[in-house]
Amino acid sequence: MKKITSIICLLVLLTACSKPKITKLIKVSNLEELNAAIKDCKAGDEIVLANGVWKDVEIKFSGNGTEENPIILKAETAGEVFIEGVSSLELSGNHLEVSGLFFRNGHSPKTNVIAFRTSAKEVANHSKVTNCVILDFNNLERDQDNIWVQFYGKQNELSNCYIAGKTNGGPTVRVDLKGNQSIRNYHNIINNHFGPRPRKGGARGETIQLGSSFTSMSPSNTTIANNLFEECNGEVEIISSKTNFNIIKNNVFYKSEGSVVTRHGNYVTVDGNYFIGDGVNDQYGGIRIINTGHWITNNLFYKIKGKNFRSPIAIMNGIPKSPLNRYNQVTDVVVAYNTFIDSDSPWQFGVGTNISQADVLPKSEIRSARPLRTEVVNNVIYNSVGDANPIIEHDKADGVTFASNIIDNNGVDFSKRDGLTSKKLTLTPIGSDISAPVSGFSDVEVYNGFDFETITEDVLGNSRDKSNQVGAILDVENIKLDILNKANYGADWYSNEVEIRDPKTHSVSNASELVAKLKDAENGDILELNAEVFKISESLIIDKTITIQSKGSTEIVYEGAANTPAFSLTPYGKITVKNIKLIGNTSNYAFASLKENMSNHFGLEVIDSEISNFNYALRVYKQAFSEQITFKNTTISDCENGIELSEETKDRGDYNTEYLTIDNCTFNNVKQNVVDYYRGGYDESTIGGNLLITNSTFTNSGSEEKNQRLLNHNGIVNVNINNNTFKNNKVKFVSILWGAKNNVESNNTLINSGQIKTEENLVMTLMY
Amino acid sequence: MKKITSIICLLVLLTACSKPKITKLIKVSNLEELNAAIKDCKAGDEIVLANGVWKDVEIKFSGNGTEENPIILKAETAGEVFIEGVSSLELSGNHLEVSGLFFRNGHSPKTNVIAFRTSAKEVANHSKVTNCVILDFNNLERDQDNIWVQFYGKQNELSNCYIAGKTNGGPTVRVDLKGNQSIRNYHNIINNHFGPRPRKGGARGETIQLGSSFTSMSPSNTTIANNLFEECNGEVEIISSKTNFNIIKNNVFYKSEGSVVTRHGNYVTVDGNYFIGDGVNDQYGGIRIINTGHWITNNLFYKIKGKNFRSPIAIMNGIPKSPLNRYNQVTDVVVAYNTFIDSDSPWQFGVGTNISQADVLPKSEIRSARPLRTEVVNNVIYNSVGDANPIIEHDKADGVTFASNIIDNNGVDFSKRDGLTSKKLTLTPIGSDISAPVSGFSDVEVYNGFDFETITEDVLGNSRDKSNQVGAILDVENIKLDILNKANYGADWYSNEVEIRDPKTHSVSNASELVAKLKDAENGDILELNAEVFKISESLIIDKTITIQSKGSTEIVYEGAANTPAFSLTPYGKITVKNIKLIGNTSNYAFASLKENMSNHFGLEVIDSEISNFNYALRVYKQAFSEQITFKNTTISDCENGIELSEETKDRGDYNTEYLTIDNCTFNNVKQNVVDYYRGGYDESTIGGNLLITNSTFTNSGSEEKNQRLLNHNGIVNVNINNNTFKNNKVKFVSILWGAKNNVESNNTLINSGQIKTEENLVMTLMY
């Protein structure tokens, strides 16, 4: 073993503390030195990782520090130590601290990137990971699930970190409670910036999960506070609380397509959080409530347009005597002192009721148990555009007490209910681009429920002691919210704000130039094709955001081998093709993803183009995922297969694209898989994918389709087929819609093309 | 309204307290005065109930005291205020205190006798009921369930009370958790004496129940400490914990036929309790464990012979993903520092496994999930008679860690297991009639699990800090347990110890004397019949413990009306008939219970007698219950019906007698219901009744039995049919035994009497 390069002993007399603090600095430059330093480390030691790239390192940091003298593992310069390749970090022992590391360009060989344990029996306690970044540290395949930060033990902390870009399955952060070593853990997840997590396509994309259904009876006592969640779009649950006594406080959920969900477990406090939408995107959610004893207080909902499962307050129906992993009845929940501004139908009850599906679901799946002993009180609703249904009862809210709630619905009628009173409110600016009703309603008597004296503060931390009033915000002077200032969250050396760069347009005159310039182009650039024909014999690799376009009717003739694509869609590859005629040799493909290692998402947009003579217009393999695939003003003709997105056949709820949009297109002589888009597995809380087919014409297609359907979209939750013409397609059905979900069609013309049928219920595999 | 009779104001300056305490004494003599006093009461008031009988009073005690100045409702002299008739007590408000009352000779008009609330919304907090007695305050019918003390609200106390004799359904004491007003209640149930609760016959006979399956996820934080449970035989669960975070500490379970059961909910502490049996009765149990996170520490088990469900430590199998009201898997349980003395097979795992019944039970009833992450460590076993199976695995204990356990098995071999080591131990006397291993094993290294540093004391409260060792008792000098001294528990003015009185024998010469002397006799007396024939035309009322016997062959000829009994078995009536010939008129009965209002148990023993020419030898109606019914050396002949105990047809698990014993008897020409004993309803944890038929002869009987069975005992759990002769009975079956339960037969002779069949599984109604 190499000798440790430098040891510096320091004797630091801390003036604020009576005990002298002894610190030993040990600088290490490689894994061997690091392991040696860890092996010898004692309370007070600081192990310093030299700046630079640390590749393929599996760090096991074990030691026993003390409260006064923790053992520290830190970057020489915060942000200049890069953990790359196949790497991981595990901690065990007591009072350990890790800081300043940057995990990037790699993935973990284990089931987690950072774990607060080194073996099943050796956990960390009183330890923290702080001021670190984990960015795009994804496994190679989407369904190789893992967790980026996994908590075990007790009293651990993840603070001031920036964590973003997880595309593979598994929550970004999970608290594990299996074992006495990890209950009543009082972990803190604080001051972090959870940056964009792209839509995963299906379940298992939570940003934070606290326990699992198997430990739903366990007391976790985890605090998630003062974090910024920005575009955390992984799935319908941003935070999935599955244990007892968690506290979710003062977080900002900004343009995040999901909700805070008390999925299992009880007695969760969701207090003083900000849910900020844009008034348009109806994927941004609020708080979805299941189980017993939660207190939802002092939260501010601003322009949240989520519906049903994603509504600002979604109170679910339970399953009577529910199995452990399903839906317990909501009881003893308090929803008090919240403010809802321009958020549609904010209170929804009996969400998830499925009594009508009793024929196709087992009895143990029927959610018929309505909320009991639940109080919705002291809340304020303000709608600048009136909302006819501030309350939606999917099932009766007869177990809910409403009291001392006020609403300004700007003159629009709504169905009246005791405990929700109209009142004219005025808005006060409380920050940049945000106003809220704050004053003028102190005359509304507050409802005092059991233990309400414990609600001592408003969302801003002002005391309710003296001049209490309904709503999340007390009437104090000069409120200036600064909740979206990213400098307040995450690592102090990292920002995800990037300067917007003007795209560069590269003129391309021949095929070899196309290959070369595509390779050299930067993210966002445009390749302008300036010849009539480009003959290409090998796949063009798309690994960045790029636009390929022409002014006139440029042809790209792909002469490559059978079953290879003209455009190979690889991780991060997002291509827009505009005004191009793409011509194949009947055996090869126009577009295809990689067959494996699609460690990050691709994207595809085809506009004003023609695709002909291919085996597949688009073939997306299992594990590949795109947030959006769009065809617009485009013709697909004389192809064996059309748009193929049906390989996620494991029936775990996954699918290949969140949105597939086909607008004003023509399909002619596409023999099979004309549109084939699949999602399998029964999961009531998966809300994708989305298929939109409008203003298009399908002729002479589908003749080879074995199931005799022209458009296959089995299991896709949102389907919209409008204003299309189907003519001379030899199929039995143009489409079979799923009536119980959001599948609709209108204004289509069918000539000699079978029919469109709606089946109310679809028999699907249960996922759990 | 009458004027309050006397108001005395006192100004008491408490020397121990800096605040002056103002007390107003208000003495009341009737309900009107009491109600007026309650209406006006203020902090510091003491309402004094005049001595005497308070009949038919429904007391609602509401008020707001303070910690320093509670409002007190008390007996003029503790124990001299009798609450009788149709009466109840309800409390609501804060800091109330009730003391000195004696509930007897009556029952409650409500669903509880004492309730810590006056309406669904008005509960009591910081209030207590102390130094009171509730005795035999039973509803008129056994299945009119109620609760004697029902907790609502928070921080209430039941202390120093004596409570005994509940025969009707429903737990004696229950903590209710429905609603935010009653969670995290920190109630205290302390220093009480729970006196004998007779066997109820079926479920719903718990002494204390903490919550219900519907609130099993709720934090209760109730403490049950320092109580004496004496002969609490109501059902298999003495304490049924159904919520989280309860503490069951330093209680004495003395000759109680049941167990402490963590039926639902998690994280219960069962610490420092004494389970005292007699080395014979195998109904005395220990601790039965279901669910997660319980800590079973420092308990002492002495001569506990319970098996399977009632074994000292019974760890159950769970149902995978169990429904809320069934059996969750056992996980993360700690069983540490307990001592087991002369207690058979004290550790049983996989209790309740029923994988073999998969054919007759729904999947959601199959208990196949074995315990996980469970530690059985630092325990001591001493067997003066060696036990071949200290560990029984009904299903594999592969998820259990054994470590640092020692056993002295007095030389008897047992199947070895890591973590359970043989060691020679010696017994030290630690109290009257009790010895335990205390010293000589300090060399055994204790196992230190997660959080084991929180186990700071032994069963006696001695610190484990300095000289820790395995087992419940540390090695300190002069241990003198005084745990069975009844003066340490219950009301200070009441004792259930009665002087034993020698029974008096009354000589009876004719029928009218028999009626008169039966009426006048005292409990336990003997009537000696000294004539040859007693002709009786009206039922003899049995309402006490009495023996009726003769020296020779005395006849009692019952000439009463059809369908009336010679002996009418009424509440508390326990009769022994010895050496008597009982003769009917073919239309009337020998023995029968009342048809209704059997508010307490009866008993029947018939020895050396003959019963003939009756419609029924014994007819027991629905709701009537006897702990024992015995026929010995007795002939039953020429009767239309024999022994009829089959009217509990609601299938809620109830039955009419705990034990039916027929030994050395003869049945001849009994046409139907020869023996008809029924229990209905599937409930894996009901362990009765008990049918023993031995050395008897059945001839020419059962000819009119519609189901063609001679002995009917459908649903009875323990059946023993040995050494009998069955001859010329026109039936298809003598008996159909339930193979999965404890139903056995041996050495029977069947001549022209059909057969005995065993059916492994019985299809029964599910009870829940």
From TrEMBL, chains A, B:
CDD domains: PL-6. It comes from the Bacteria. SUPFAM superfamilies: Pectin lyase-like. InterPro entries: PbH1, Pectin_lyas_fold, Pectin_lyase_fold/virulence, PL-6. This is Poly(Beta-D-mannuronate) lyase. It comes from Winogradskyella damuponensis.
